[in-house]
Design goal:
Blueprint: H1 5-12, E1 17-22, E2 25-30, H2 35-38, H3 58-80, H4 95-123, E3 127-130, H5 133-158, H6 165-173, H7 175-188, H8 201-204, H9 208-238, E4 240-243, E5 245-247, E6 250-252, H10 254-282, H11 295-310, H12 317-349, E7 351-352, E8 355-356, H13 367-382, H14 388-391, H15 399-409, E9 416-419, H16 438-449, E10 453-457, H17 469-472, H18 479-482, E11 486-489, E12 494-497, E13 510-511, H19 517-534, E14 541-546, E15 549-554, H20 560-565, H21 568-596, E16 601-605, E17 615-619, H22 623-636, E18 646-650, H23 661-665, E19 670-673, E20 685-687, H24 691-703
Parallel strand pairs: 9-10, 9-18, 10-11, 18-19, 19-20
Antiparallel strand pairs: 1-2, 3-4, 5-6, 7-8, 11-12, 12-13, 14-15, 15-17, 16-17
Helix pairs in contact: 3-4, 3-9, 4-9, 5-9, 6-7, 9-10, 9-12, 10-12, 11-12, 15-24, 16-24, 19-21
Length: 705
């Protein structure tokens, strides 16, 4: 249509045409067939790849979708092959390997282009473009140039050193010849320009963001190469090109899409490699100027919009094509911008203390596990009553999913581990807690030696007898292990940071709000009134008060001696009745506190052994205070800690469990529950189970190299 006025005029009028070739004579005749007419006008996006296949029938649409799926799968396989397991960094393959991948990807794009042309040719939904001798010569010359261009771009991206160092030395010795050679390379590499500092072979081995970008770059380069070769090879063989995508009153084909969508991705990823290289050298975040990419596509989009409003017939066909291709280029720029911006943020997020570290990978959980978690979260979120959340738990990690979680931390250990003590790090099934064992002390030492900062967040007080943290943990730690040790006590009410010599500070780093006597009186009155209504004998209850908490323990006369004297069935019935009454007291307390306008973190705790007394605890502090204060302490030392670098461990992630506040305070962190259940509404908790032994095994597993 670009070289024959009669055909151009027929298309402008909206006529349906068939184009036949008899030797070198172009014959145009009108046809009554409606297939070509159906493709008239702006029909991009009507089917897969914008090929307007749906108006031609379901069978053609399915064929187009099948081709698109096959090519998309091939592109995904090639791009993802550049990332290591679980999205980690990976050194690029040897030259013979990546060359084969590039050739296969280019062949796949070419095959898709020609397969689509064959489909539309067989359906009559096409237009021939006759190739004049001058254009044929240009196409013939373009084939080796395109191959050289593709080889240069792919070699540059995979290179582990600046590939033009020899050319620089040649230019120094032979200025004229060197300048000519350099100029030819500049023309060959347009619009990318010759900048051999944008190589990525060495960076891809260290940074997942660069490895991902390199994989996409290979696919983009193959798309550009296939697009430029597609029409050229067809024109040289047939002296004609089949077009089938409507462009105003003209036509285009898949090769045009490949070129103008592939160039932005190749161009922008190369610039990302250069920016990343400068950032590593300067030990500063990578910076890119994205404004320069938009000049041509913005102009093309505006022209195309004007052409659409004025009517295609009013605009010369070459102008329509220029605007269309600029629009395609703009769409490619937008897509490449989104992709590279994400890689840039991922790369800069790994800058720690002036050094770029590998970013953590997301665990490669099984589809079944992800589906079970989604179902549990949906059931919990749809529940209208608060108690439903108590029975909807996260699914337990299978062995395969546990291995995926462990693998996520190998290669990049968490910078901070915040763990509960009772029933998480040490076994408290007897109600008294255990003094830390030598094995767990050795675990703390190994974690510290590996650069992992371990902090405890417990409900226990720091001092106050044999059940306090000083007696159970601190006094058994070596001075080296106590150095800069961080400990949160009282359920987040206090956070202590030990000195560089391992000495206990006189005052806590952080103190939560205290409970006033007036508030204690209100709480005590509500509990006494509700207990009387429900028949809970307060003679078998006791209270424990600290500045930051108020606790009520209820045995209701059930203890180890009575358990031994009672038949098992009678004992279980008595325990169930006790727990029912205390649950009702707790529910009434929550309502009473709300009515009085008092805000407390209230929890009801049933110990693992039923002869031990359950208790209600109220505090104005939660372990969310502990998480925030602990991270504040670490960052005050000059260390940057992202949420992804924090691992939280606990046994009580139920409703309204003591440990539930930790992952809620840090949604980007990861929490592992070693208790029997975990609230499905907390999306960043994974249920492991197994208690303190499972905690030790998990931490040991992630330390293994």
């Amino acid at each position: 249509a670009l070289v024959d006025g009669e055909l151009d005029g027929a298309i402008k009028k909206g006529d349906s045409v068939l184009v036949d070739f008899d030797g070198t004579k172009l014959v145009v005749r009108k046809s009554d067939e409606g297939k070509t007419t159906k493709l008239g006008g702006w029909a991009l996006g009507a089917a897969a790849l914008g090929l307007a296949a749906l108006p031609a029938g379901a069978s053609l649409a399915l064929a187009v979708a099948g081709i698109a799926a096959a090519v998309g799968y091939a592109a995904w396989r090639v791009a993802s092959s550049y990332s290591g397991p679980h999205g980690r960094a990976q050194a690029p393959p040897l030259a013979r390997v990546w060359a084969v991948r590039a050739v296969v990807m280019t062949a796949a794009f070419l095959a898709a282009d020609w397969a689509l042309k064959a489909l539309f040719f067989g359906s009559g939904l096409f237009v021939f473009h006759h190739i004049v001798p001058t254009r044929a010569l240009i196409m013939a010359a373009a084939v080796p140039l395109n191959l050289a261009f593709g080889a240069w771009m792919l070699s540059l991206g995979h290179s582990k050193a600046a590939p033009l160092e020899k050319l620089r030395k040649f230019r120094e010795r032979h200025p004229v010849l060197g300048a000519v050679a350099y100029g030819l390379l500049q023309v060959l590499a347009f619009p990318f320009t010759i900048n051999d500092q944008r190589y990525a072979g060495d960076l891809a081995a260290k940074h997942p963001a660069v490895a991902k970008a390199l994989g996409v770059f290979v696919v983009a380069a193959a798309a550009v190469l296939a697009g430029t070769l597609g029409n050229g090879l067809e024109g040289l063989v047939n002296a004609k090109v089949v077009d089938f995508i409507p462009v105003g009153h003209g036509r285009a084909n898949l090769a045009d899409f490949l070129v103008f969508l592939g160039i932005p991705f190749a161009w922008m990823t190369l610039d990302f490699f250069g920016a990343a290289r400068k950032a590593v050298a300067a030990r500063k975040p990578a910076v890119m100027n994205f404004a320069k990419y938009y000049a041509l596509p913005v102009l093309g989009m505006l022209t195309f919009l004007l052409a659409s409003s004025a009517g295609y017939a009013a605009i010369p066909l070459p102008a329509i094509y220029a605007a269309f291709f600029s629009t395609l280029f703009g769409v490619g720029i937008l897509g490449a911008n989104v992709f590279v911006q994400r890689r840039l943020a991922e790369f800069n997020g790994s800058l720690q203390d002036g050094v770029f570290q590998p970013m953590p990978a997301k665990p490669a959980f099984s589809a079944g596990y992800r589906l079970r978690r989604a179902a549990a979260a949906l059931l919990a979120s749809l529940a209208a009553l608060p108690f439903v959340g108590k029975v909807v738990s996260q699914p337990k990690l299978s062995d395969k999913d546990y291995a995926a979680l462990v693998e996520r931390y190998r290669g990049r250990l968490p910078k901070v581990v915040i763990t509960d003590y009772d029933d998480t790090f040490m076994d408290n099934s007897d109600g008294r807690g255990l003094v830390i064992s030598d094995a767990r002390l050795k675990l703390l030492e190994d974690l510290k030696a590996a650069g992992v900062r371990v902090a405890f967040a417990t409900n226990r007080p720091l001092t106050g007898g044999s059940y306090a943290m000083s007696a159970m943990l601190v006094e058994r730690m070596s001075p080296e292990l106590r150095r800069d040790f961080i400990l949160s006590t009282g359920g987040g009410a206090e956070v202590f940071k030990f000195s560089s010599k391992g000495e206990l500070p006189e005052t806590p780093y952080f103190s939560g709000p205290a409970i006033s006597e007036a508030e204690r009186a209100v709480v005590g009155g509500i509990i006494a009134a509700e207990s009387a209504k429900l028949g809970v004998d307060m003679a078998h209850a006791r209270s424990d008060t600290k500045p930051y908490e108020h606790a009520f323990m209820y045995s209701m006369g059930l203890n180890a001696e009575k358990k031994a004297a009672m038949p098992e069935a009678e004992w279980k019935a008595a325990v169930a009745e006790r727990n029912r009454r205390l649950t009702a007291v707790f529910a009434a307390l929550e309502k009473g506190l709300k009515k009085e306008g008092l805000e407390f973190a209230a929890t009801l705790k049933f110990p693992p052994r039923d002869e031990l007394e359950p208790y209600i605890r109220l505090s104005k502090s939660t372990k969310s205070f502990a998480v925030k204060a602990i991270l504040e302490v670490v960052e005050a030392e000059g260390r940057r800690v992202d949420a992804e670098d924090v691992l939280m461990l606990g046994d009580d992630f139920t409703v309204p469990g003591y440990d539930s506040a930790m992952p809620k305070a840090l949604p980007g962190g990861t929490a592992v529950a070693v208790g029997s259940a975990a609230d499905a509404r907390i999306g960043n908790v994974h249920l492991l189970g197994g208690g303190p032994d499972a905690t030790e095994k998990f931490l040991r597993d992630i330390l293994k190299k």
